[in-house]
Specification:
Largest interface: A-B, 23 and 32 residues
CATH class of the largest domain in chain B: Alpha Beta
Strand order of the largest sheet of chain A: 1-4
Largest sheet of chain B: 6 strands, mixed
Radius of gyration of chain B: 21 Å
Distance between the termini of chain B: 47 Å
Number of strands of chain B: 14
Largest sheet of chain A: 2 strands, antiparallel
Shape of chain B: globular
CATH superfamily of the largest domain in chain B: P-loop containing nucleotide triphosphate hydrolases
Shape of chain A: globular
Strand order of the largest sheet of chain B: 6-7-8-3-9-10
Structural class of chain B: alpha/beta
Strand content of chain B: 25-35%
Order of helices and strands of chain A: HHEHEEHHHHHHEHHHHHHHHH
Oligomer: heterodimer
CATH architecture of the largest domain in chain B: 3-Layer(aba) Sandwich
Number of helices of chain B: 10
Radius of gyration of chain A: 28 Å
CATH topology of the largest domain in chain B: Rossmann fold
Chain lengths: ~425, ~300
Amino acid sequence: MLFFKECKKILRSLSFWIFFVITALMFFTQYFNDGKFRASEYTGGYKIVENHEQIMNEAINTLMGEYTSNNYVCYPYGFYKAVSLKEKKKEKVEIYIQEMMGVDHNGIEDILESHLQEWLNTDHEGIEVYLESTSSDSIMDFFSQCPENRFDDLTVKSDLTYERFTEIMGEIDDILGGGSDFAVDALVFNYSRVDMTDEDSLKQYEAFIKYDRITYALARLFSDYMGIDLAFLPVFVSAVFVAADRRRRMSELVYSRSISSFKLVFTRYAALVVTMFIPIIVFMMIAFIQAKVVYSGEKMSMSAMFTLPTFWLLPNIMVATASGMLLTEVFSAGIAIAFQCVWAFRCLMSGSVALAGDIGKFDLICRHNSTFDRDIFMQCFNDFVFNRIFFMVISLLAVCIAAYVYDLKRGGKFNGFKLFGEGGLLRRKA
Amino acid sequence: MENSIVIKNMNKYYGKKQALFNIDLTIEKGMFGLLGRNGAGKTTLMKTLAALHKKKNGEITVCGIPIEKEKEIRTITGYLPQEFSMYPNMKTDEALDYLGALSGIPKEERKKRVEALLNKVNLTQHRHKKIKELSGGMKRRLGIAQALLHEPKVLIVDEPTAGLDPEERIRFRNLLCEVAEQRIVILSTHIVADIEASCEQLAIMDSGKILWKGSVSQLLEKAKGHIYTVNVEKQFMAQIKKEYIVTGILPQNEYNTVRIVSDAEPDLPNAVLSDPDLEGAYMYCLHSNGCEVKGGDE
């Protein structure tokens, strides 16, 4: 059967074994490590309780601190960036602060002055010498850069609605170029945490045992870790596999056979997906055995460790494989790998700061980096199901297009696009 | 019609550049040679016949099937490309089995055919060797075996003997002649000796055009009266090469015996009209069609 012959070819390829080693490393260093401990051994932590008043007040304190130092901490696309605003934008931010606090420019000045005085009234080693030698403006500059420059007692005006507050936060985040602590979708996570009580911890653990029957929760954590890898690693295997015919000067021998392009491309696709899923099944088994050992004597779901990760991870493998096949046919293996890596990386970095329940309808990588938080996961369960089915459908469509492109190439009607070099699309004209 | 390839007024372009010009050709069962220099358009024509390239216009039917029906064409055509290789870590019989699966041959049937073909191309004792361990000649023979796996009516082989040693070349040509007893075999080459040894019918191509088509004997007949042998003192060789198309030089003691192509009787003492060989006839064909021929010119 052709399917098994293709599987055999994949199993012989170096790229597959590199894939296997990296996924194994990810599994053992991340999930397997976490899974060694019983969930009941985790204590403390925090929980998110969406309290609008708390969010607004905590946010205005953080904003005021960053505004006075003109040093905003941002993570656009996941990378740290310290943003300093120019005068015009700084003024805009101040106007928003005034609106939120219900004060004018002088009011802001007064707040800063009293905050400075309060700071000066406490002991700071060597500060007297410094103060004697400098002007008041410099004191403010010096103070604004100090780590102690934190506000914690500011409040927003009483009639500020949460809707208007989020609008303003969105505007400020835009001014800062995105990824700031004031991004609307991060507000709840950033400013609405409360410490967990013992009772809360117990409740969580009960949900873990009773509703998640242990393995559902562990399966979510397993899928979270493995999903990151599987959003891009399969592209290496599929792109190299598709390009192998040309690299081995085998294309024309294959092109001239009577098999239909759709049958060949889909057989290869199925072989790639199945072969790359085999190590994941092995890891699921190891994870399941580990769970049985760690939670020996506890009642657990026997199937969850296999069903949930299959539904969660298979679309990732399908998408990365399909994108590798399609883009290698249209452009080249290099472009396919670069595209998939950038896509996965952007998805990973532009996700919500909360790693639990970070599941959008169209995010390639679904995140739930927690053994607990079942409620949060269930809140976005419908989105999760939609997301996974959507990506499965998308990947099958991509394979259909890849088969069509393959058929065109096979009949000499299309030779693929070249981006660089002679005749390349991106070649600069002399 | 059912046992021939008919090409009528076919043109082929690569982008804006025309690669084949008004090709008219009928190829019957047996060995057919396609002779021409490198870059004459032979490979383009071969690929078009194997449904791997798309023609711009004109008609091609292969054993009665229009070339546009690619799947059907691939079912009845076996193709051995000029440059090919296989997955280097596959074993010889495994590679054949894989390509047989791509041709949709059932498993049991495939097993029998692989066995028979390995025997036919004399690779049975190398069946468990990896492809990367085979010599150039063995790879070529394996190439023929893969092209014959699905028992095609037409076998297209593109420059199959290039780079082979003389013994392998002879063995390969004999194999092709054997295969051609039951089907159309198109042999494309720039090596005249391959055509001479194996083909009855041939076409000569240059710059994407068919310059001549017919039997080998007709080509030889055409060149009759234009091939001369002359003894030339060695000191005059440079001048001879400049003025005539030299197809052979046999060094003697004080002079060279030279074969030249000439439209009219050359103005040389001792020039004797000779029976043309295929090489000379081929050179004359190129020359008489206005192609620049550099036979012997240094």
